């Protein structure tokens, strides 16, 4: 059993912390939301009144926060954890942030002899609840090995992509591809529907044909085709459009820095940003299906 501090109890962090408790770990959590803290208490977590309390005697501190500035604030801010952590603690940041911020965090904590890995995840809220996430880690090999113990309580795959920051690079490559698959699947389904096809039948056909992909397998964007996905629940929960737009922005920044050519990623960034600007930022990212609704013929 390990003593774990956990920060950020949103759609992902809440169920992840609960799974750590189920695995027998002693988990102390912190979030800015009282509702999230109350839910974590019900799941068996101890709650910290102040951020710094999660670091107290912790073997691991794990964070699952929205974006770069939240992570920087929590660790390196004026009242951040940097000065409270001890060298006995391994810090694991599971948020999706830029590789640069992850490296800055890693090197700043290293100056205080605190070990750090970035470990962004894939698998969505369903994977967080079921404890089947994939962790994509960047950091020293022995630190990733040590983290495997606790990460296994929340996921089924733990990969090491390379040194600190490499997890984030692999993660944005994956999410850029996911956005392309989601937008493409939505377009194909809407085209079929516009021609009178039943989306359930069309989904089954594409699932058994060369268009098969993850969105058709487990995350169909068309309401009513699949149970227990955001599309069949008013696009509530899941992975927000705002967060997908953030990840696509990170991918484009990375592409600019390296000179990589990512025209499809640029297209989906613009799609997701416009969809967010139209007021859909807090819906699940599969709601892009509604953006590609056929126009009524005049
Ligand atoms: P979310 O918005 O549901 O949750 C974020 C939580 O962090 C909230 O509870 C918020 O109150 C808390 N928070 C914000 N600032 C804080 C601070 N300073 N101190 C303490 N708590 C703070 O987000 P999410 O969907 O859980 O996503 C978290 C991260 O995981 C993001 O980086 C996202 O890109 C990534 N991710 C999400 C999914 C998904 O399907 N939702 C999948 C993979 C990766």
Automatic annotation (TrEMBL):
One Pfam family name is NAD_binding_2
The similarity annotation says: Belongs to the HIBADH-related family.
- EC code: 1.1.1.31
Question: Origin organism of this chain?
Answer: Pseudidiomarina sediminum
InterPro entries found in the cross-reference section = 3-OH-isobutyrate_DH-rel_CS (IPR002204), 6-PGluconate_DH-like_C_sf (IPR008927), 6PGD_dom2 (IPR013328), 6PGDH_NADP-bd (IPR006115), HIBADH (IPR011548), HIBADH-like_NADP-bd (IPR029154), HIBADH-related (IPR015815), NAD(P)-bd_dom_sf (IPR036291)
- Entry keywords, A to Z: Branched-chain amino acid catabolism, NAD, Oxidoreductase
Specify the pathway: Amino-acid degradation; L-valine degradation
Q: Which GO terms describe its molecular function?
A: 3-hydroxyisobutyrate dehydrogenase activity; NAD binding; NADP binding
What NCBIfam families does its record include? Answer: HIBADH
Enzyme class, first EC level, given as a word: oxidoreductase
Catalytic reactions on record? 3-hydroxy-2-methylpropanoate + NAD(+) = 2-methyl-3-oxopropanoate + NADH + H(+)
Q: Where is the 3-hydroxyisobutyrate dehydrogenase-like NAD-binding domain?
A: 165-291
What the entry lists under PROSITE patterns is as follows: 3_HYDROXYISOBUT_DH
Know the name of this protein? 3-hydroxyisobutyrate dehydrogenase
Q: Where is the 6-phosphogluconate dehydrogenase NADP-binding domain?
A: 3-160
Where is the catalytic site? 171
What's an example Gene Ontology biological process for this entry? L-valine catabolic process
């Amino acid at each position: 059993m390990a003593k774990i501090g956990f920060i950020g109890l949103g759609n992902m962090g809440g169920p992840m912390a609960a799974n750590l408790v189920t695995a027998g770990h002693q988990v102390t959590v912190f979030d800015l939301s009282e509702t999230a803290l109350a839910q974590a208490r019900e799941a068996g977590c101890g709650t910290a009144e102040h951020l710094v309390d999660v670091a107290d005697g912790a073997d691991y501190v794990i964070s699952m926060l929205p974006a770069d500035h939240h992570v920087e604030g929590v660790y390196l801010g004026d009242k951040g954890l940097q000065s409270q952590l001890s060298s006995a603690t391994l810090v694991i940041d599971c948020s999706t942030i830029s590789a640069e911020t992850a490296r800055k965090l890693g090197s700043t904590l290293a100056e205080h002899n605190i070990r750090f890995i970035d470990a962004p995840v894939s698998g969505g809220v369903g994977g967080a609840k079921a404890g089947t996430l994939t962790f994509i880690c960047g950091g020293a090999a022995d630190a990733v090995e040590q983290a495997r113990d606790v990460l296994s309580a929340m996921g089924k795959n733990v990969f090491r992509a390379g040194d600190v920051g490499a997890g984030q690079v692999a993660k944005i490559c994956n999410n850029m591809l996911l956005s392309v698959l989601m937008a493409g699947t939505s377009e194909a389904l809407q085209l079929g529907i516009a021609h009178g096809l039943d989306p359930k039948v069309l989904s089954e056909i594409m699932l058994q044909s060369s268009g098969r992909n993850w969105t058709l397998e487990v995350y169909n964007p068309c309401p009513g085709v699949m149970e227990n996905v955001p599309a069949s629940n008013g696009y509530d929960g899941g992975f927000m459009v705002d967060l997908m737009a953030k990840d696509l922005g990170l991918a484009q920044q990375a592409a600019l820095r390296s000179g990589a050519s990512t025209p499809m990623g640029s297209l989906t960034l613009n799609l997701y940003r416009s969809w967010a600007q139209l007021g859909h930022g807090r819906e699940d990212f599969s709601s892009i299906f509604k953006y590609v609704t056929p126009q009524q013929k005049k």
